[in-house]
Amino acid sequence: MKYPRLDRNALKMKPLSERPNRVIFERDKVLPGTKARAFAGAEKKTMDEAIERIVGARKGKRPVMLAFGAHLIKNCLSPVLIRLMEKGWVTHLATNGAGVIHDWELAFQGGTSEEVRANVARGEFGNWEETGYFINLAINVGAYEGRGYGEAVGAFIENEGLEIPSSSMLEGEAVKNLKPDPARAAAAADLLEVVSRFDLKPGFLRVPHPFKHSSAQADAHRLGIPFTSHPMFGQDIIYNHGMNRGSAIGRAAERDFLTFADGVSRLDGGVYISVGSAVMSPMIFEKSFSMGQNLALQRGAPIRNHYMLVVDIAESRWDWSRGEPPENTPDYYHRFCKSFCRMGGAMRYISADNRDFLPALLAGLEQSGG
């Protein structure tokens, strides 16, 4: 049955330059060395333990994965993320679709985050031309090139543009690969539709990103470190724009999920840190871990020695090192803790603002001498 669908091509998009931004990178940035609150007692013990495990993991060439919600980027902590990557402490970054958007907007214009209530009332929320057009374009082209979601946007920022294939080349590739490689043919045909629909000229499309030094995605691309994005369809403002294509989102996000799962499959002896992600991080982790454990058991070497640190601002009265709490306690419903607690290995929880936790983690690692 064909149900009615909203015509998003009829939406009136506004220039991003007309939007007041609640966050300005140069004003709000958190630099390495920024003084954060001191951790004490049980929290300090957990921090020290986590630092020791990270140092041990990197000495043993094991992965250290950091997954986070969008607020970490919106809080302008990308300079700390960049230092963690450049020093080799973190080997994989993962976020949701909003994390990608905030990172891109900061790189493109130096500001991000709009007033949701007021802009919804005006029919303006999320309807910003450059954000919808360029992020979707980067994903459309990146999916055709075989890039993941985060890598596609990171490469776009770092290269300050992207290469638009010609219509004739895409058409020829679609026809040539129809039988031997239907997936490749479909990717070429999908991008051909975008190129035709938006009358994109072949060649390099230059898009300056004056603040690309703020971008964790760009830095990850430059360093060859996976930066994966794990979106939910319709959850982010880029879905408002006519440039959005579900086929490209699916290809790029699937690639990122499998890259993430590969990292998790090698987590024995490694560390997984989840900061401010109540749904995305625990949900993709448990599926990835199950797949990784399946393969590990086939090899006769199950994943056992993994360390998981969960950080969120919500308070918890439960000692998660004791295992899962009973169902009659409120903490049982902390999904972002409970899911990880079920994954074996060692799981710890710290209640902290990410603006306190991340600089403190970096400082502890740099002082460790590891």
Would you spell out the secondary-structure blueprint of this structure?
Blueprint: E1 23-24, H1 25-28, H2 41-59, E2 64-68, H3 71-74, H4 78-86, E3 92-95, H5 97-109, E4 111-112, H6 116-121, H7 129-145, H8 149-159, E5 161-164, H9 167-176, H10 182-197, E6 203-206, H11 216-223, E7 227-229, H12 246-265, E8 271-275, H13 280-298, E9 307-312, H14 335-341, E10 346-351, H15 354-368
Parallel strand pairs: 2-3, 2-8, 3-7, 8-9, 9-10
Antiparallel strand pairs: 1-4, 5-6
Helix pairs in contact: 2-15, 4-11, 5-8, 7-8, 7-10, 7-12, 8-11, 9-10, 12-13, 13-14
Protein architecture, described:
It contains 15 helices and ten strands. The protein has helices at 25-28, 41-59, 71-74, 78-86, 97-109, 116-121, 129-145, 149-159, 167-176, 182-197, 216-223, 246-265, 280-298, 335-341, 354-368, and strands at 23-24, 64-68, 92-95, 111-112, 161-164, 203-206, 227-229, 271-275, 307-312, 346-351. The strands form three sheets. A six-stranded parallel beta sheet has the order 7-3-2-8-9-10, sandwiched between helices. Strand 8 (271-275), helix 13 (280-298) and strand 9 form a beta-alpha-beta unit. Helix 2 (41-59) crosses helix 15 (354-368), helix 12 (246-265) packs across helix 13 and helix 13 (280-298) packs parallel to helix 14 (335-341). The chain starts with 22 loop residues before the first strand and ends with a helix.
